[in-house]
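Subgroup meeting minutes
Present: P.N., E.W., G.H.
Scribe: E.W.

1. P.N. recapped why we're keeping a running log of single-chain structure predictions: easier to compare across weeks, and new members can see raw inputs and outputs side by side.
2. G.H. added today's entry (310 aa).
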Amino acid sequence: MLNNHNLSIRHLRAFLQIAATGSFTRAAESLHQTQSTLTATIKQLEQYVGLTLFDRTTRRVFLTQAGERFLPQARQLISDFDTAIGDLQAISAHQQGLVTVAASPSTVSRLLPKLVQLYKAEHPNVDICLRDDNAALLEQSVISNEADFAIAASHSQHPDLNYQPILTDDYGVVLTRHHPLSDMTQLSWQQIDKESLIHLSRDSAIRQQLTEHIPACSAPPGLEVSTTAGLAALVEQGLGITLLPALAASTTAFQNLSFVPLTNPAMTRRICVITRKSRSLSPSAASFLTLISEYLQQARLPDFVRLTPP
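Output recorded in log:
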């Protein structure tokens, strides 16, 4: 049996490459190894775990049930290893590297452009990648090391993630400027009870929060859309009103519409910095987070958006 001290990252890379290609031949070519060397590597791994990980046919290689179970774990191990090495290389290269930030669309459009400008002025050799998506995919990008951290509302309170609240914004009604309710300074839920509601799709954190707190929002909507740009266009067309937190409503997509905060009950959203518990940030990512904190302390925030107390 293979000694556990001899089990190495090459065994995992070999396993993943064969799983991806379905062929020892193609996997050996991509890894720049001979097929016999690759076969011996997988045999060592299978002997060590005491299980067959691949079924071989004359045409293709398939994962066994045990191999299928191990596949996501192997991917995570390789991701963690590559990320850790990348972090060390960033230190040795004096913070040259890449910072990937996953964020909600409203955060990308309203907060991050200025922050990226400030950061690049101080760290011109660090590349920045911004990824906007729905809440579930933002959290998953942090878990899988595809992003250094995320800035978004808490979606699932995932046990592998830390959530540090940084901003709080109020929910309100978004409607056309000629709507009879657009001149109100605030609105109660009863006042919009008869209005036609347009919702974001159920995979959004906004829709999830509304559904959890307001029973009426759990009913099937007459109209829903997956993007805030589409939502703004539908409201502007007069097809209904929508409910949004203030930061989302302050984006350019809604510049021709009115926002009126909701009361009785008031409803808020907390925007968090989301990091992975088991991972230390690279120096570049950590310095970007420090800049975010310092910037928000003195930034002029949109109406009904405020710093979250420590």
